[in-house]
């Protein structure tokens, strides 16, 4: 495994790989890796000859009042995990490498339009603009054949797919099923920021999603009824502060009709203390 710090060095290394006919798989991360990230790497290894993981905490997707400074970081730990996984290249640039003026900002941004402004985009204005911008920069640097993203960040995945389609970027964006802890909580770097009490309480998220799926399995199709049941379940956990409960079209994230007629995605945003957790579940019909 090679650790590379500069854009020029990475381009040189990957140019040599491509000259040998190797396909490139890419997993962009912000580090503090967990089994979910390693599952993305495993998918890359299964589908591509060479796997690249980036580790970069991107400042342009954080608002001034958000937790950029507190975001967990442990590069030596991450490198050990990736080496054990058999990763080929790790690209870990500093802020000055990605944003040369040192400000962590850029004059040019990628904006995915309405898809970036709804749901989480309404709670975090400009967040997805920062995500799309840095992912586009990374795609330009790595030039991967395939890029792998977790489905837990459902809206982010939709934004990246829209960006790639709209900008004709030659990348196959692959969504990978959410990896969960034994109690059902989605793996996330932010889980490490939870207190022991909040970590125990956070299991209400997968429980609420399972409740919604059970109701759908029993024939419930009313969006209002499903949302009410989910909110009621979440409110049973006093440590959680509900920020959003949305049921949207699974393909477009458009608002659904009053009655479900096709698979829809349930999107949850709940804050525990200072830590915001998100999760998703696609509500599918048995018949």
TrEMBL record:
In which compartments does the protein localize? Answer: Cytoplasm
Q: Which InterPro entries does the entry link to?
A: Pantoate_ligase, Pantoate_ligase_C, Rossmann-like_a/b/a_fold
List the catalysed reactions. Answer: (R)-pantoate + beta-alanine + ATP = (R)-pantothenate + AMP + diphosphate + H(+)
Q: GO molecular function terms here?
A: ATP binding; pantoate-beta-alanine ligase activity
Tell me its EC number(s), please: 6.3.2.1
Record keywords, A-Z: ATP-binding, Cytoplasm, Ligase, Nucleotide-binding, Pantothenate biosynthesis
Q: Which residues bind ATP?
A: 30-37, 150-153, 179, 187-190
Q: Name one GO cellular component term.
A: cytosol
Q: Does the keyword ATP-binding apply?
A: yes
Q: Kindly indicate whether the keyword Repeat belongs to this entry.
A: no
Matching Gene3D superfamilies, A to Z? Answer: HUPs, Pantoate-beta-alanine ligase, C-terminal domain
The record's listing under Pfam families reads: Pantoate_ligase (PF02569)
Q: What does the sequence similarity comment in the record state about its family?
A: Belongs to the pantothenate synthetase family.
Q: What does this protein do?
A: Catalyzes the condensation of pantoate with beta-alanine in an ATP-dependent reaction via a pantoyl-adenylate intermediate.
How is this protein organized at the quaternary level? Homodimer.
Any idea what this protein is called?
Pantothenate synthetase
Q: What organism is this sequence from?
A: Pseudochrobactrum asaccharolyticum
UniProt lineage: Bacteria, Pseudomonadati, Pseudomonadota, Alphaproteobacteria, Hyphomicrobiales
